[in-house]
User: Which sequence fits this backbone?
């Protein structure tokens, strides 16, 4: 997002070693909302004859098709190699599961389809492997929810991280859906509260650390200082600017109150967690 022209120029114009082409991947350049002048500079660099020995790939995590941009974005979108990968949800995701199950010669009864989509979701690569396992196990008979439970492991760790990621990025609809999915998959509310509290604690520590180190705010330096995994530090650093320090302090105290209430009273911790989640997004 903070790409400078000089390192990109060096990457594109360096002569390949023992190869005919160099692969240069630019991540989330357009997500940084570059100016039209910056886009013109990069486009001119790509069109230089010396850059023909490089293959440039612009990868964007989320880029709405309606997003207006400068000349470089128009150039990339017009490329015959441009691809947009839209996540499947709802009925489209269920239809994909049914079609892929046919290719593996296994039928899914409604309960099996529901359990599989709840546990595996839109990870289509993994879903294809799970369907292959079911086909081998069922040997021609329809797969049931029991078969799915026996053969498929719900990826709780990854899904919980997706939930905390949605919270950190302030995506309320996605966060509520992921919370609901986790509860349906049998993850206890106390475990969800603990994981979300841990994430909120990391955001709080990162916020304080950034205030003390305005010039050394790299994810690696923060990971070393706060003893976090580098990947966790990188995700946290990308989310911490979405929150003010007083808000993080307040939200952290609320989570501790939910944890105490869940362990010491007859209140509904699932309802409290849902209300906490809904209260954390601007209306």
Assistant:
């Amino acid at each position: 997002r903070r790409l400078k022209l000089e390192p990109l120029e060096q990457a594109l114009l360096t002569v390949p070693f023992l190869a005919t082409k160099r692969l240069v991947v630019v991540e989330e350049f357009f997500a940084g909302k570059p100016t039209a002048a910056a886009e013109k500079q990069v486009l001119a660099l790509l069109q230089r004859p010396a850059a023909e020995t490089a293959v440039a790939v612009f990868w964007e995590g989320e880029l709405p098709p309606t997003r207006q941009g400068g000349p470089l974005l128009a150039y990339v979108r017009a490329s015959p190699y441009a691809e947009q990968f839209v996540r499947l949800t709802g009925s489209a995701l269920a239809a994909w599961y049914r079609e892929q199950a046919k290719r593996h010669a296994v039928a899914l009864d409604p309960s099996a389809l529901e359990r599989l989509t709840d546990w595996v979701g839109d990870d289509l690569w993994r879903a294809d492997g799970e369907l292959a396992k079911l086909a081998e196990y069922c040997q021609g008979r329809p797969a049931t929810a029991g078969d799915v439970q026996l053969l498929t492991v719900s990826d709780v760790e990854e899904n919980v991280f997706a939930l905390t990621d949605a919270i950190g990025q302030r995506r309320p609809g996605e966060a509520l859906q992921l919370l609901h999915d986790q509860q349906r998959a049998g993850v206890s509310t106390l475990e969800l509260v603990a994981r979300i509290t841990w994430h909120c604690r990391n955001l709080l520590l990162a916020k304080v650390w950034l205030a003390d180190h305005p010039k050394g705010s790299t994810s690696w330096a923060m990971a070393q200082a706060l003893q976090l995994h580098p990947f966790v530090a990188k995700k946290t650093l990308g989310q911490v600017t979405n929150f003010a320090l007083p808000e993080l302090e307040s939200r952290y105290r609320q989570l501790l109150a939910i944890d105490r209430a869940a362990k010491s009273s007859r209140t509904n911790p699932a309802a409290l967690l849902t209300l906490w989640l809904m209260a954390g997004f601007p209306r």
Remarks:
- The chain is about 60% helix and 5% strand.
- The chain has a mean pLDDT of 84.
- Strands lie at 22-27, 54-59.
